[in-house]
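Can you please make up a protein's amino acid sequence together with its fold in token form to help me picture the idea?
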Amino acid sequence: MDPMTTPTTTPGPGAASDSLASRDKGFLLGLYERMFLIREFEEQVKYLFLAGSMPGTIHQCQGQEATAVGVCSALAPDDYVTSTHRPHGHALAKGLTPLEILIELFGKGAGCCKGKGGSMHVGNLAKGMPPAIAIVGGGLPLATGMALAFKMQKRPAVVACFFGEGATSEGAFHEAVNMGAIWDLPVVYACENNLYGASTHISKVMRAQSVAERCSGYRVPCRTVDGNDVVAVHDAAREAVAECRAGKGPVLLELLTYRMTGHSRRDPCHYQPKAERQAWAQRDPIETMSRRLLQRDDITAGELEQIRNRVSRQITADIETARREPEPTLADLTTDVYA
């Protein structure tokens, strides 16, 4: 397997088979709905930014929905995640509502970060997600420090730390993973390897054939998983979380995926070869899950359509509600300022 050049992957621990017949129907439909929620959210937000309705910029995650949903579905409510400059999917997968994120993106005071974080810093600590950190690799030491605190407090909580493959070239990655390893900290390092750091292909920045190989020197279990298979990601994450909770130390999951959108909203993706884009498009995580679900006798195309329609209506309604929220006041400029 060469994850640098092909979408072909090697199944990780607990990777799903072609059949989902033995899985709970409600659980599977829940995974599908959450992935579609993320996709629909991102698509509608894209047009809001293009229309100039929202301030700032965005980094979106179309194509990577299975990584966020698969990992977060393996976490308990009291577990935490740290995120990146591409955080919408992680936030929705962790339980933040579309409405509280949309209000934030519109810059309104009732947003999840009071309108002060914007797209790259969404979060809700009460739901287990500190505001996302836009600095590449910035969430890694935070997640490791949180895991150290949980261990010292004898809390059973686990931290799932999302980051891209580009972050593995940062010193923060190596320091954080090494610290997690030597102290057996309860953190799942979830690398979303989408092959590109901004516009630079992974093959141009490292000689190792995978992120898992790069991490192996720290004696941390490193598992490469099909990041477009939400069930495979869930199974691998569930096993990793169980190991962390049992005190066995951190686990790194390399989730092979692909972003179907630009690095940011002004990126036309000309650096992605057409054949590569087409190959990965055939493995769209939502379309793949839909086909697999319809192989079951108890799931119909009508049920999936109902889910999609319900989600689309919800996002549309939430956008209109968010638009009507009041703007922050001048006095809000000096609240929550500590330095």
In short: Residues 213 and 222 are 8 Å apart (CA to CA). The chain has one domain: 34-281+315-324.
